Automatic annotation (TrEMBL):
<keyword id="KW-0472">Membrane</keyword>
<keyword id="KW-1133">Transmembrane helix</keyword>
<dbReference type="InterPro" id="IPR008699">
    <property type="entry name" value="NDUFB8"/>
</dbReference>
<feature type="transmembrane region" description="Helical">
    <location>
        <begin position="122"/>
        <end position="144"/>
    </location>
</feature>
<dbReference type="GO" id="GO:0005739">
    <property type="term" value="C:mitochondrion"/>
</dbReference>
<keyword id="KW-0812">Transmembrane</keyword>
<dbReference type="Pfam" id="PF05821">
    <property type="entry name" value="NDUF_B8"/>
</dbReference>
<protein>
    <recommendedName>
        <fullName>NADH dehydrogenase [ubiquinone] 1 beta subcomplex subunit 8, mitochondrial</fullName>
    </recommendedName>
</protein>
Amino acid sequence: MNFLTKTFTLNKTILPGHTFLVSTIRNHWNKDYKPGPYPKNEEEWERNAKKYNLHKSEYHPYPDDGTGLGDYPDLPMISADSKDPFYPYDNPELRRNFEEPLHAEFDVMRLDRVDVNAKFRYPLWVMLAQFLGVMFFSCTIITLGEYVKMFHPLVPRQYPKEGKTYYTFEPIC
């Protein structure tokens, strides 16, 4: 705690009145993460490929259709679930290496999200038919249960009446 106090007072003595310098240096701004404009010539393609650590033949930016992705590379959609779990990644929690470019939809393709490369056991139409079959069967049973009442058979309740004996303490024999 003493270290923090001395550091704070040191900053006040070195930078009096310039607290904005101390507070703005610690992080990057959002403009640093914004992609640049779509490359228009060969030099820009090479510069952007180097910027994203890709070979010139591997660099293909998203089409310039107004989505705002600019010069960001159009990477293949490979989920973290589809990557080799035994490879010695630099960041094994995300299954990626240092300075590996991220996909534009990286937040969707992490280990705790959707696997876009999943191969299902059955085709989609079979799974849809199974789901609709179960729902139809359940709704049919519930609907029939509303019209056909089922209950345990019971005798009518015996309410005490005057002059009628319900129970005596006399022996049977």
